[in-house]
Amino acid sequence: MDELLSRQMPHSVEAEQAVLGSILIDERCVPQVMEALKPEDFYLRQNREIYEAVCSMFNFSETIDPVTVLDKMKQNGTYDENTSYDYVRQLMVITPTAANVEDYINIVRDKSLLRRIAQESGAVLNLIQEGTATAQEALESAEQRIYAIRQGRSAQGLEHISTVILGVYDRLNELAASGSAVPGLSTGLADIDSAISGLNKSDLILLAARPGMGKTSMALNILLHTGKYAGKTVVFFSLEMSREQLAMRLISGESFVENKKLVTGQLSEEDWGKIAAAAASLNQTRIMVDDNPMLSVSDMLAKCRRVDDLGLVVIDYLQLMTSAGGPSRQSDNRQQIVSDISRSLKIMAKELNVPVLCLSQLNRASVTRADKRPMLSDLRESGAIEQDADIVMFLHREGYYDRDIEDPNLTECIIAKNRHGETGTVYLQWLPDFTTFTSLERRYEEEY
């Protein structure tokens, strides 16, 4: 008998009763309790039913006391003639004081968290014992479940629309309070922010171009600006360039010392001063880089789950990534692999609830056309990329093909797909010496 009792899920009857007793003694505790606890955090069914009644009454601004709570339980069909009245009265008697409600809440929440960990661990153990999952799949499942607990949500499951609407209200209040012109993270380029509403949570943003157009430079511009001003950690996965090359590009963009000087080391005294100031500025940011060229989406997801206060993930670039299932086999269809990767990236953005900016190559079709501006059909290897992405942006610089034009560094950022607004073209200025982009200063004169 003792062995069976010891195998019960973790819970504290006394703490649960004390939380409910505090509410019944002083209803001013309710907002504090509701902010921290959900009905499912209560282990005993009777306690859970009383708390559900309290939550329902609070949402409708009804008075909360022993009499009204019992009446609400009658309406809900959870009132028990034999026990409910005596139990509610007992709750008030055994609670020392409502002043300690925060301590009672912490105990209930801690026990609830332990139960969830035990449940999710049991689910992973069942998956292993069934023998149908590979070690990689079991590890991915375990990480996903534990990460969901850390984020305070379910790994899977249905959720009532009212809960979702509460989240929407919170988001709208947050936006209204911030007074920001764009809801998402700023890219540092005002015209692009305005066109795509910034970099929004759970979005997969695709930045594609032919080689030499400045994809990596644009990504580093965004990374640098977000790392400096967003107050969050930003992660850059570089499958092409080394960490040292990335750092050099960031220093060049921040210090406005020509990239060529940094590569050759031919630096003046003034340049050294600028580099020192840029390095000090970069040291204050929360930019993290990884230059492992063999990463899969699941590897990136595992690393990002461990990052505190993540704000943005940047990947350079999609076609260099290995399949989610590990290194690709020769028999695998490359188009299918890229489809799997792009789908996994969208799932990753949703799970982490941060924008994921992924760079992509274009096929050569645009080069053979008279109008060399890229189109969605030019995305290399898979049409699935354009379906999974929330925003698709192309970089095009006519001066790359014709150096005799008036402004060879004028760059078009073509927004070909945008789930948050209209498509269109934003003009930027490319600064080749510093491998960076700036907004185009344009003046309009009224015609009379």
Question: In brief, what are we looking at here?
Answer:
The chain is built from 18 helices and nine strands. It is of the alpha/beta class and 448 residues long. It has two domains: 1-153, DNAb Helicase, Chain A; 185-439, P-loop containing nucleotide triphosphate hydrolases (Rossmann fold), CATH 3.40.50.
Written description of the protein model:
By secondary structure, the chain is of the alpha/beta class. It folds into two domains: 1-153, DNAb Helicase, Chain A (Orthogonal Bundle); 185-439, Rossmann fold (3-Layer(aba) Sandwich), CATH 3.40.50. Helix content is 49%, strand content 12%. Strands 3-2-4-5-1-6-7-8-9 form a nine-stranded mixed sheet, with helices on both faces. A hairpin with a 5-residue loop joins β7 (410-418) and β8 (424-431). α12 crosses α14 (269-283) and α15 packs parallel to α16. The radius of gyration is 28 Å and the shape is elongated.
Can you give keywords for this protein?
elongated, 448 residues, alpha/beta, disordered C terminus, 2 domains, 49% helix, DNAb Helicase, Chain A, single chain, 12% strand, Rossmann fold, 9-stranded mixed sheet
CATH topology of the largest domain: Rossmann fold
What's the helical proportion of residues? 40-55%
Q: Calculate the mean pLDDT score and round it.
A: 77
Using the alpha-carbon principal axes, give the shape: elongated
By CATH reckoning, the class of the largest domain would read: Alpha Beta
Q: Low-confidence parts lasting 5 or more residues at pLDDT below 50? A: 326-331, 442-448
The named CATH superfamily of the largest domain: P-loop containing nucleotide triphosphate hydrolases
The overall strand count is 9
Number of spatially distinct domains: 2
Largest sheet: 9 strands, mixed
Order of strands, main sheet, comes to 3-2-4-5-1-6-7-8-9
Helix and strand composition category:
alpha/beta
SSE pattern: HHHHHHHHHHEHEHHHEHEHEHHEEEE
Rg, Cα atoms, Å: 28 Å
Strand content: 5-15%
CATH architecture type of the largest domain: 3-Layer(aba) Sandwich
N-C termini distance: 94 Å
Number of helices: 18
